[in-house]
Write a structure and sequence with these properties.
The chain is α/β, with parallel strands linked by helices and about 375 residues long. The chain has helices at about 15, 20-30, 55-60, 90-100, 125-135, 155-165, 190-210, 235-240, 295-310, 315-325, 330-350, and strands at about 75-80, 115-120, 145, 170-175, 210-215, 240-245, 255-260, 265-275, 280-285, 310-315, 350-355, 360-365.
Length: about 375
């Protein structure tokens, strides 16, 4: 097969985020004119509205962002909110430790990954004491701390980018607290300012496929909907991918409720109790069981076929349709797989992509 020649390299997530591009650096060294990746929409009037038809939407394969912790935490920007001294930092310490060690947290399976914990309202002595009381001398090489960081407009993204480039398996960054990285101004609590700061951090999180957990406070006024108690304007929650709200009926109580809401997950209400000796939070019960998608027959057929075929396969949609015994046109099979690419990766550990060459279009499947 003769593949189509690519005239310009598509920028990586790191390049989009402001990193140096080796390709353009080399061109610059030779005095060549450096042009950005070509977007056909660039030829249109700037007032032209870019659109995508429904068939075009179904014909795209979008990047797969697997859960950070399946059923609990996903890539993006999340607010973790609670009243002062309710136990937020202890729960963040617990999340950071379980994530870095790959230890199951409550009834959620956890895969080990590097975690950066910006404990901006603590010092190292307090962190040492807290973690020792909670977890003893067990430690994790991939859990990193800092008690100081720049503000969002003062270089925080560059600091985070440098850390992630040095620790490629970073999946979770905790910023405790959001207020410590915000800029003080007379418009601090405007909707536009709140929305902008979250949107900026969200773009960064999306570029690297990580979760940014922002610890924040609740307002004093009570509300029937606990998410209405998030301090600041609705711009914070409106721009975020989701939020966790930790609250107690009584401040002196040893029990708390953790409410979770997000774009990529089901709403949950978890009832927690505090271990008085270790100060860790333990799951007493969940209000409802998480709904799980029923098995997908098409994906099961693909998993079985790819496994029996040595872990990889390449061919046309027509070939695949015949192999699987699917009674549908090849283009419909392709669209079904385009939509299910994320689930095929998360559930079956099979990477799916389409390849367009001069000889035609092909499907590639590979176990990862």
């Amino acid at each position: 097969m003769n593949e189509q020649k690519i005239t310009a390299p598509a920028p990586s997530a790191a390049t989009d985020a402001g990193q140096s591009n080796k390709y353009t650096d080399i061109l610059a060294d030779f005095g060549a004119e450096v042009k950005p990746f070509y977007d056909p929409f660039d030829d249109f009037d700037p007032n032209f509205l870019k659109t995508m038809s429904m068939p075009e939407l179904y014909d795209r394969v979008f990047a797969v962002n697997p859960p950070i912790i399946d059923g609990f935490l996903y890539p993006g920007v999340y607010l973790f909110v609670g009243a002062p001294k309710v136990g937020k930092s202890f729960l963040m310490a617990q999340l950071a430790y379980h994530m870095s060690t790959g230890t199951p947290m409550w009834n959620f399976e956890v895969k080990p990954a590097t975690v950066l914990y910006l404990a901006l309202e603590d010092d190292y002595a307090r962190l040492q004491s807290r973690f020792y009381r909670m977890f003893g001398t067990d430690s994790a090489d991939n859990l990193h701390f800092s008690t100081v960081a720049n503000s969002v407009n003062g270089g925080l993204e560059n600091q985070l980018r440098g850390f992630i480039e040095a620790h490629k398996d970073t999946k979770l960054v905790i910023i405790d607290t959001l207020q410590k990285v915000r800029e003080e101004s007379k418009e601090t609590y405007s909707y536009a300012n709140d929305y902008q700061i979250i949107a900026r951090l969200k773009a960064f999180a999306g570029a690297y496929g990580i979760c940014l957990m922002l610890v924040h406070h609740t307002r004093k006024q009570q509300a029937d909907d606990k998410f209405d108690m998030i301090s600041g304007t609705n711009g914070l929650l409106g721009a975020a991918d989701g939020a966790f709200v930790l609250h107690k009926e009584k401040r002196t109580a040893n029990a708390a409720i953790l409410e979770i809401s997000g774009r990529d997950q089901q709403d949950q209400k978890l009832y927690l109790t505090r271990n008085q000796e270790k100060l860790t939070w333990e799951l007493e019960r969940a209000e409802t069981d998480l709904w799980k998608e029923p098995p997908d027959g098409l994906l099961q057929k693909i998993e079985k076929f790819v496994t029996e075929n040595g872990g990889s396969w390449q061919g046309s949609a027509t070939d695949l349709s015949q192999i699987l015994g699917e009674d549908c046109p090849p283009n419909i099979l392709t669209r079904r797989l385009n939509v299910r690419a994320g689930r095929l990766m998360n559930d079956c550990k099979i990477e799916y992509c389409t390849k367009h060459t001069r000889d035609g279009s092909y499907i590639q499947l590979a176990k990862v």
